[in-house]
Amino acid sequence: RGEILVDVAPDRDRPFVVSTAHGSIRALGTRFLVSREADATVLSMIESRVEVSIDGQPRPLVVGAGQRLRFGSGDAGELATVDGELLETAWQRHQLVVRNEPLGKVLEQLARHRPGVIRYDAAALAGLHVSAVLPLDDTDRALQLLINNFPGLRIRTLTPYLVVVDHPKTR
Predict the structure, then answer these.
(1) What percent of the chain is helix, strand and coil (3-state, nearest 5)?
(2) Average pLDDT for residues 15-19, to the nearest whole number?
(3) Rounded Cα gap, residues 145 and 132, in angstroms
């Protein structure tokens, strides 16, 4: 669970390896981000390249600068293009940068940075997509920004540890 920013120098005698529930990532002298989600690992490359060994896949995959790979056990995933410098800056500033992401995915990310639970029905929110920069060190403010940009979105804080998000117009 969590996220790590890795910055390592190449060293053939002492390889740096990040192991997750879905495989391993071996640095080849590089900077990259690794995020652990509930059902997958997300690798975002900032510079250079890494070798990814995915559980259940016969051969490792090399992922280079400006690429993102989301993979689960036995699932090779797909490569996508990312802005590595933007991701690194956002990570250092405790920000979440999303482009056209489903609202449910954004809420999942916010929930990782907040005590307690954010409850929502991902299927009911599926039609709503977010492009934004949201503060991860103030999730209440991030939720308020979502309300400001999605008329009809309802966010109820029932206790400091339970937030419910819905959009009655999508029912």
Answers:
(1) 20, 45, 35
(2) 93
(3) 9
